[in-house]
Write a structure and sequence with these properties.
Length: 461
């Protein structure tokens, strides 16, 4: 089935708008809450002493947000959230691990046991293969669609979590488009890209004379987004000193400009995203617990691309047609390598790979010639293969030859422009310069026009 993602997806969408998972019961078998139990459904359950935890314990040796249990299609995964006393599975301390029915989990002086409930738990799946401009048809993604189809039209605050490159902003924009606010503004701000001294003014605005350089009144992003959606990207980077003011803005739906004594009402929906685990930040003291729970009215976790391999070819096909301007399918020779790759950069890395492949001609379609015999090995190819050397040395020599040919081809393609060549290769300009020097190449031989000023810029960086 792994080799036929489209067939599998079609089958799921046609026959089953939901899937069944084993329901599990979590029992407290030792500690102050002994005898308590909870049915675990699909999704995440947090264990700790904080009021917002799904499984709230009275054990003083348990951290406020101690660990997290996630029920998924293949079982239950437990993750320790940087707790003070750690999380033990069957007596072994773990950071994250897979649990099996009958296993025990120790948190502080409390012991939990996981047991099969004897009945299934059902997970609703959407029939759609996209949500706005967010594309994906795997069961993991269609489960998210099913949730968002219900909550996107509301004004509920949503926290989107996921690794870098999974498409958090694309999903936030899709939520905005599916809401009653779609005709209003969608304002996105990266909380990690603004200096700490300026972020309060950026979010809430300021009045003239509030600080040095404030020569006129300025409207903040909350006011700019009024009537629409404000997307706070990388919310985990928000300075601790500003978090109470953001909490007040979310609770009261009003803001006060820096230097002003007057609060102003704002009609805005807030979506937030982070690649950090905010629950860990709560335990570490870097993120306010009350703000975390206020943001996570609904929490959406976008799985990494490696966890939804059925979407790799669907996304690659979309990017290929977008960058090539063609309607024909993705070249067959690319399909196997695409599915075999781990894609640590997720959808962003896949998108960049396809764009680079199209730009360099790696994705060029070959005209079919059924009557022609298969191409034979080019004459003289054996001369390039140093068969007289051990494998390790032969591989190194082959790699050096490839790099030399590849870099030379890039320089010819860009007429010697090192900056453009580096962009096509997906490396920094300095890295490409090292390869050029290492292989004795000269960008000027291919015509380095238009790139002369870059050396000076590189030295000044």
């Amino acid at each position: 089935m792994a080799d036929e993602p489209h067939g599998l997806t079609t089958s799921l969408m046609a026959r089953a708008p939901r899937v069944a998972l084993d329901a599990l019961d979590l029992h407290v078998i030792a500690g102050p809450d002994r005898g308590a139990h909870r049915r675990l459904g699909p999704g995440k359950v947090r264990v700790g002493t904080a009021p917002g935890c799904d499984v709230r314990l009275r054990d003083p040796t348990v951290s406020r947000v101690h660990c997290e249990l996630e029920v998924h299609g293949e079982g239950v995964r437990i993750t320790d959230l940087e707790s003070t006393n750690g999380t033990l599975v069957d007596g072994v301390r773990v950071h994250d691990a897979e649990l099996t029915a009958g296993g025990t989990v120790s948190v502080g002086e409390t012991v939990l046991r996981l047991e099969l409930a004897g009945e299934p738990a059902y997970v609703e799946l959407s029939r759609a293969d996209r949500f706005g401009r967010f594309l994906g048809a795997s069961p993991e993604i269609r489960r998210i669609y099913a949730i968002l189809e219900r909550v996107a039209p509301t004004d509920a605050t949503i926290l989107i979590q996921g690794e870098t490159g999974t498409g958090k902003e694309a999903l936030a924009h899709a939520i905005h488009q599916a809401s009653e606010r779609e005709r209003g503004p969608f304002i996105a701000v990266d909380c990690g890209a603004i200096a700490e001294s300026l972020i309060e003014s950026e979010l809430f605005g300021h009045v003239r004379g509030a600080f040095s350089g404030a020569v006129q009144d300025r409207i903040g992003l909350f006011e700019q987004a009024s009537g629409g959606t404000l997307f706070l990207d990388e919310i985990g980077e928000l300075p601790l000193s500003l978090q109470p003011k953001l909490l007040r803005a979310l609770e009261m739906r009003e803001v006060r400009r820096v230097g002003s004594s007057v609060s102003k009402r704002v009609d805005v929906r807030v979506l937030a995203a982070t690649n950090r685990h905010l629950a860990r930040g709560v335990n570490e003291g870097t993120f306010r617990e009350d703000l975390y729970y206020r943001l996570a009215v609904l929490e959406i976790v976008i799985p990494p691309l490696r966890a939804r391999r059925d979407d790799i070819l669907l996304l690659a096909e979309h990017f290929y047609r977008s960058f090539s301007g063609r309607s024909d399918p993705l070249p067959e020779e690319l399909r196997g390598p695409l599915r075999a790759r781990a894609w640590p950069g997720n959808v962003r890395e896949l998108r960049n790979f396809i764009e680079r492949s199209v730009a360099l001609g790696w994705c060029a379609r070959r005209e079919a010639q059924p009557e022609a015999p298969p191409p034979s090995t080019p004459a003289g190819l054996e001369a390039l293969v140093p068969a007289d050397l051990p494998l390790k040395e032969a591989r190194e020599l082959w790699t050096n030859r490839f790099e030399s040919l590849y870099v030379g081809a890039l320089l010819r393609r860009t007429h010697g422009n090192v900056t453009q060549a580096a962009a096509l290769a997906g490396v920094t300009r300095r890295s490409l310069q090292r390869l050029i020097a290492q292989h004795g190449l000269r960008s000027g031989d291919a015509g380095d026009a238009g790139d002369a000023g870059d050396d000076e810029e590189e030295r000044g960086a």
